[in-house]
Amino acid sequence: MIYGAGSLVTGLAPNLAVLLLGWSLLEGLGAALIMPAVVALVAANFTQRDRPRAYGTVAAAGAVAVAVGPLVGGATTTYLSWRVVFFAEVVVVALVLVLSRAVADVPGDRTARLDLVGTVLSVLGLGTAVLGVLRSSEWGWVAPKPGGPELLGLSPTFWCLVVGALVVWVFLRWEALLARRGGDPLVRLELFTHPELTGGLLMFFLQFLLQAGIFFVVPLYLSVVLELPALDTGLRILPLSVTLLLAAAGIPRLWPQASPRRVVRVGVALLLLGILVLMSGIRLDSSAAVVAVPLSLVGLGVGALSSQLGAVTVSGVPTEQGGEVGGLQNTATNLGASLGTALAGSVLIAVLSATLAAGVQDNPDVPQAVRDRAGVELAAGVPFLSDTALEQALADAEVAEGTARAVVAENRAARVEGLDAALATLALVAVGALFATGRVPVTTGGGPVPGPAGRRRSTPAG
C-alpha cells in the first residue's frame, strides 16, 4: 500500500519536491518492506523441497519485469507521458493486494518492540557508506578530485566509508548488548553463524554488484555511444531478460536435486563469460547487435544464481526467521547494486578522462592553446557524452570546426577505453566471485533440524 501511495503521489506531483516525496521516500519505503516480506512468505508457504522452485519463479517474475519495464516505460514516455507509468503502478499494486488474499500470512510476534536505536544506527551507517560510494566518481575514492570537495586533504568518499564502517560497528555492538539483555534486536547476530546464510548473502552481494555494473555499462553504450532511443535500448536488453527467465524458472523444474554450489558456480562462470564476450565486441565500429550474445549469457548466469540463492539463505534458519533473513538479503543486494554502479562508473569516468586528456595532448590537429586548457579542465573528470551532445557543446563554445572534429574523434576512442576498463573491473570481480562460491552449500535438502534447548540448527552442508 505504501508503494502504491508513493506511485500515486509521484504521478500527481506538481513539482520536484513532491515527486521526490513520492518516488524516493514512499516508493523506497514500500520497496524496502516488500522484499523481506516476499522471502518470509515463500518460506512459510512452501516446503524446504519446493522452495528453490518458488524462489526461481519469483526471480522469473523479476526477469519479466526487467524485460517489460524498459519497453513499456520507453514506449509510454515516448508516446504518452511519464506520469502514466506511475498511475499504471497504482493499478498493479491494487491487483497485487487483491491476489494476496490467496497467500497464507506469516504470523507476527505482537510482543516484539521495534529497535529504534538499531534502526537509526543501521540507516546512518549504511546510508553514509552508500552515499560516499555513489559520489565517488565526483569526489574520488581517497585523493580528492581537482576542484572537488575535500576534508583534511582527503576525499569525502573516504571519510563517508570510514564513518559508515564505524557506525555499523557500533550498531553490531548495540545489537549484541540488546540480545544479552533479553530485548528484540533488529538483527540477531547468531544468524551469521549459519554458513548457508552467510554464503548466500555473500553471493547475493556479488551477483547484484556484477548485475548493476553490467546494467550501468550496457545502456550507456546503447543510448550514448550508439544514441539509440529508449524503446530500442529496451529491445536490445530483451535477450538478457528472456534467458534469465528461462534459467530462473527452468533450472528448479528440470534439475530439482541439483547441487546449489554447482549451479551457482556455473552461473558465475556464465556471467564472467558474458562480460568477456561483451568486452571483445565493443569497438569503435560495433553495432547494437554486439550485445545480444553476451547479454544472453549474462541472463543465463543471473537466472542460475537467482534459482538457488533465495533458498540457500533461508535453508539453515528457522522458518519463522524468514523475515529477518529477507531483510539481510535486501541489504546485501542493495549494497551490491550501489557498489557495482559506483565501481563501474568510477572506473569508466577515470579511464575516459585520462584517455581523452592524453589523446587531445597528442593530437596534432588540436592547437597548443586548446591542449593547455584541456589538460587543466579534463583533470577533474569529463562526462560521458554522445557525439551529438559533444558536437553541440563545442559549437556553443565556438571551437573551430577542425579542432572540434579532432576532439570528437578522441572522445569516441576514449569512450570505448572507458567501457572496456569498467567491464574488465567487473570481470575481475567475477573471478573473485568464483572463489566465493565455495561458501555456498553443496545441498540444502536437509534443512534446519532441532538443536539444543529447543533451538534449531543447520544440517552440515557437506
Overview of this protein structure:
The chain is an all-alpha fold and 462 residues long. It has a domain of 70 residues. Helices cover 72% and strands 1% of the residues. It has 15 helices and 2 strands. A two-stranded antiparallel sheet has the order 1-2. A hairpin with a 5-residue loop joins strand 1 and strand 2. Helix 8 packs parallel to helix 12. The C terminus is likely disordered.
Outline of the structure:
This protein is mainly alpha-helical. Helices cover 72% and strands 1% of the residues. A hairpin with a 5-residue loop joins strand 1 and strand 2.
Strands of the biggest beta sheet: in what spatial order?
1-2
Q: Give the uncertain stretches in residue-range form.
A: 446-462
**Gap from first CA to last CA:** 43 Å
Shape: globular
Going by helix content, strand content and strand pairing, the class is mainly alpha
Question: What is the H/E order?
Answer: HHHHHHHHHHHHHHHEE
The fraction of residues in strands falls at: under 5%
Biggest sheet character? 2 strands, antiparallel
Average pLDDT taken over every residue: 79
Please report the number of helical segments: 15
Round the Cα radius of gyration to an integer and report it.
24 Å
The beta-strand count equals: 2
Helix content: over 70%
InterPro entries: MFS, MFS_dom, MFS_trans_sf
Protein name: MFS transporter
Domain Major facilitator superfamily (MFS) profile: 1-444
Transmembrane segments: 20-42, 54-72, 84-104, 116-134, 154-172, 201-222, 234-251, 263-282, 288-305
